[in-house]
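Need a sequence for this fold. Nothing fancy.
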């Protein structure tokens, strides 16, 4: 059976695995974005706090994915829980770092002007600082998503959802008729999903970033 015949005969399962892969990455990115932006808001005004937040989230990336998931299995079990926790933690660094950089890069004159017209600190943050910091934050989200697409494949080690199951089954059955097809299908599926997500982020940027900021 060649690769195209394999895709045709397994297309329903491949679509299911691809949907699960995209779903878990998307949900983890939503949580990582919310947490990352919140951490950035809390720490960007202080040099040491911002450095601490960046250092701690950087340290998480030094933990191998297999080790992270392996450490979580005795605590939360197999399946979705260790996958979600690991992906969320791995997705924090680019968002936290870019949120801090973006918020610190807002022109102080604009913040002073907002203060001068009577805006509260919360209003300045929501209506002035965050919109101006959004382009670098979105860049951080894009970087995190691309990372998580690959890392999510390793979640199959803990019976997690997604295309990683195809890759692991193929590797475990090397030498069999469809082993290479399984690895190739899983790998190409992840690449296609990563490209689709990135295209969606480009469109989101065009819709949410004003022309003046992009210029």
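Here you go.
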């Amino acid at each position: 059976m060649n690769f195209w015949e394999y895709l045709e005969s397994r297309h329903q399962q491949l679509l299911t695995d691809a949907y699960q892969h995209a779903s878990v990455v998307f949900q983890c990115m939503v949580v990582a974005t919310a947490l990352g932006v919140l951490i950035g808001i809390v720490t960007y005004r202080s040099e040491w706090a911002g450095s601490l937040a960046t250092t701690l989230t950087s340290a998480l990336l030094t933990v191998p994915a297999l080790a992270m998931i392996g450490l979580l299995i005795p605590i939360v079990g197999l399946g979705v829980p260790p996958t979600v926790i690991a992906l969320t933690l791995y997705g924090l660094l680019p968002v936290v770092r870019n949120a801090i950089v973006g918020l610190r890069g807002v022109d102080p004159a604009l913040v002073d002007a907002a203060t001068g017209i009577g805006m509260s600190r919360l209003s300045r943050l929501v209506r002035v600082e965050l919109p101006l910091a959004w382009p670098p934050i979105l860049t951080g989200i894009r970087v995190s998503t691309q990372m998580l697409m690959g890392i999510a494949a390793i979640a199959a080690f803990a019976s997690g959802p997604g295309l990683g199951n195809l890759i692991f089954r193929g590797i475990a059955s090397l030498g069999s008729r469809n082993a290479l097809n399984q690895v190739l299908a899983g790998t190409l599926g992840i690449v296609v999903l990563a490209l689709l997500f990135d295209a969606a982020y480009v469109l989101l940027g065009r819709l949410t970033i004003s022309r003046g900021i992009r210029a």
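For context: The mean pLDDT is 91.
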